[in-house]
Each structure stands twice: as C-alpha cells, then as structure tokens.
Amino acid sequence: MSVSKFIKEAAEYLQNRGFEKPEIGIILGTGLGKIVEKIDIIAEVSYNHIPNFPTATVEFHKGKLIYGTLEGKKVVVMQGRFHVYEGYTLRDVTFPVRVMHLLGIKRLLVSNAAGAINLNFKKGEIMLIDDHINLQGDSPLAFRGVEKMGERFVDMSAPYDVEMNKMIEQVATDSNITLHKGIYASVVGPQLETRAEYRYLKIIGADAVGMSTVPEIIVANHLQLPVSAISVLTDECDPDNLKPVNIPDIIAAANKAEPDMITLFTELIKQL
C-alpha cells in the first residue's frame, strides 16, 4: 500500500468522525496542552484509533487529535506529537501533517519545548523560530515516490511563513510578551546534550535546541503549507555551568510560559 493510500485512509476515517474542513492545524509540544481548553470541541479521537497513525509513547504527551472551533476558525489539534527517539521514522513523525493537509488545513502552527543555547534568552521565555538546522541525520522527504506528492527538491530559503511571523511579533508587542527570534537546532535525542555539544551548537549558530519540529516544517514546505513555530524555552544550556537535567523542572517551565504561547496563537488565529 502506498503512503498516499495510508494518508487517504486516515483522513477518510476522521472525516467520518466529524473532522470537516479544518482551516488551521496546530501541533502541541511537551507540556503545552492547555490551548485545548480554549477550543469548542466538536470531535476528538485517540491516535491509536486512527488507521495508520503512530501512537504517542512519551508519558507527558497526550495522544489525541482534537477538532473544534477556536476564535471562530475550525482547527485540528495534535495533543501530543511523535519523535524519532520513540523509534519512529521521519515519515511516521510527519504522517499527521499530511493527514491534516488532506483534511483541508491551509496553515500550520507548531510549538515545542526547547533548551536555550543563546544565554541572552532565559528559562520561561519564548522564541519565534526564524530558521532551523536539521541535525537529525535524515529527511522526511527521502523516500521513493515522494515526487508524486510534491517537489522532491523543496526550497528551504524561507521555511517559516514571513507574514504569519510578522503577525506573531505584532501580537507579542501588543500583549507585552517577551518574544525572542532565533534559530532552532533539531537533534535526535532522547539523551540531552553534553557540554561539548552545547558549545558546538552555539558555534554553528543555534539559539535553541530540541528533538522535534524540523521534520514537520520540512513536510509543510513540501505541501506548500504556510507554517510558523514557537519554542517555549524550558532550560538554559550553559556549558560552563551545566546542572543535571530535571524533567519535572522542564515541564514546570513549559507550564509557566504556556499562557504567553496560547495568547500568541489565539490572537494570530483571530486575525487570520
């Protein structure tokens, strides 16, 4: 069975469950699920019920696809995402983006929790991703038959939608939210970085590091789907003062910054 057939099967299942013509797709990262409380939910389905869908294996990722209205727009929300470190391929990780696109989304918003490499950025602040570095050693477009689904050699000169990014920056200004802008490096994980790796990431120009997002951005560009992404900075990665990682602390930092991220996304959606 071809990838296209798998995507079609999943989309048809969701359409039969009431997922009708969503306009905007949203992918929620670690500790960033509360935007769902703002949605008038019409339908929700667990990932493990959707044909051909991967299932979330990370305990703090929910594993549900939610459909409803937010600020008058029809949205489809991934509450919990997939990662290469769970044993998935990049095609698995990005499968939901292709399904949401087939359902009808015209724009994609992505969030993640990331470590701040740029030491001018502080824990609990937010970074708008302006560009990225793919250090996952693979591409979600590296498979036979990809050219049937879009241009194989996708241009990545401006992977993040300039217009939506400007609108997000304006919302931040209007709402007095500290919003940094920077470059996100995506690594495989799940282990965190060594001191030498943090130094390397700084040298190559990364402002933040995480284990997600870039595959979804590549596929969004393959589908010519305008996309914006926000990192919630959950720890400060100072190689000269590195302390052992504390996952509950990272989740707490994500929860602290989450209301600002929700404001940025909901106000943007209102204006789209």
Strand content: 15-25%
How confident is the prediction overall: mean pLDDT?
Answer: 94
Question: CATH first level: which class?
Answer: Alpha Beta
Helix content range: 25-40%
The CATH homologous superfamily corresponds to Nucleoside phosphorylase domain
State the helix count: 6
Indicate how many domains the architecture comprises: 1
In the CATH scheme, what's the topology name?
Rossmann fold
Number of strands: 9
Task: State the order of secondary-structure elements, H for helix, E for strand.
Answer: HEEEEHEEHEHEHEH
Determine the structural class based on helices, strands and strand pairing. alpha/beta
The biggest beta sheet, please? Answer: 5 strands, mixed, barrel
The rounded distance between the terminal residues' Cα atoms is 37 Å
GO molecular function: purine-nucleoside phosphorylase activity
InterPro entries: Nucleoside_phosphorylase_d, Nucleoside_phosphorylase_sf, Pur_Nuc_Pase_Ino/Guo-sp, Purine_phosphorylase
Function: The purine nucleoside phosphorylases catalyze the phosphorolytic breakdown of the N-glycosidic bond in the beta-(deoxy)ribonucleoside molecules, with the formation of the corresponding free purine bases and pentose-1-phosphate.
GO biological process, one term: nucleoside metabolic process
In short:
It holds the Pfam family PNP_UDP_1. It is built from 6 helices and 9 strands; from the N terminus they run αββββαββαβαβαβα.
